Amino acid sequence: MTATASPTVVLLDYGAGNIRSAQRALEHVGAAVTVTDDPKLAVEADGLVVPGVGAYAACMQGLRAVNGPRAIGQRLAGGRPVLGICVGFQVLFEHGVEHGVDTEGLVEWPGVVDKLKAPVLPHMGWNTVDAADGSELFAGCDPETRFYFVHSYGVRSWDMEADEFIAPPAVSWAEHGGDRFVAAVENGPLWATQFHPEKSGEAGLALLRNWVRTLR
């Protein structure tokens, strides 16, 4: 019997912080991972992961420097999986506003990333997620499971209009300090999380495993 090859995953390296924990987590769940800033490799892999740590504007600048928006767009046009994490989730929306600076994002989803209205920021540590009904990402996940967040900004409303011909995205939510924000979105080949699955222990590995299984 011939062994099944591991799905190939590119972790897009565009200067958005330390991504080795994501590499180790993805390899742990069975992916063959390449860390690169090469957009051609990013387009060709079975899956693409877009991480992100730091300021929205800086991440967008880094993505543009490696032709990240084009690679992401090409993949999505062909229905090929992309996973965004933390600021890699945030840049998928229309724009982000940080410290008075309004930066255009990748405009895959409508909405603005702005400062959370919570008494204590950043939102740092473990929190539960109200997973969307029928979520593939959170399949097998207990509702009380906690994931690791570290952010002060988020998407606090979801405004995508319904389309009778297209399945609506699965939108999952979390809450911090009384402020509700989008924690994850599953939209065809494009999935993304505000939290860090690679830093969320066994629960995060289960989510990454669910994503990697879609690449086979």
Rounded average pLDDT: 94
**What's the oligomerization state?**
single chain
Number of strands: 13
Q: Given the helix and strand composition, which structural class is it?
A: alpha/beta
Biggest sheet: strand arrangement: 2-1-3-4-13-12-11
Task: Assign the CATH architecture.
Answer: 3-Layer(aba) Sandwich
Strand content: 25-35%
CATH homology superfamily name: Class I glutamine amidotransferase (GATase) domain
Distance between the termini: 17 Å
Radius of gyration: 16 Å
Describe the structure.
Keywords: Amino-acid biosynthesis, Cytoplasm, Glutamine amidotransferase, Histidine biosynthesis, Hydrolase, Lyase. One of its GO terms (biological process) is L-histidine biosynthetic process. Its EC number is 4.3.2.10, 3.5.1.2. The protein is of the alpha/beta class and 216 residues long. It has one domain: Rossmann fold. The protein has six helices and 13 strands. The protein has helices at 20-28, 39-44, 56-65, 68-77, 87-90, 201-213, and strands at residues 8-12, 32-36, 47-50, 82-85, 93-98, 101-104, 109-115, 123-128, 146-151, 153-155, 170-176, 179-187, 190-193. The chain has a seven-stranded mixed beta sheet, with helices on both faces. Strands 6-5-7-10 form a four-stranded mixed beta sheet, with helices on one face. Strands 8-9 form a two-stranded antiparallel sheet. The chain is globular.
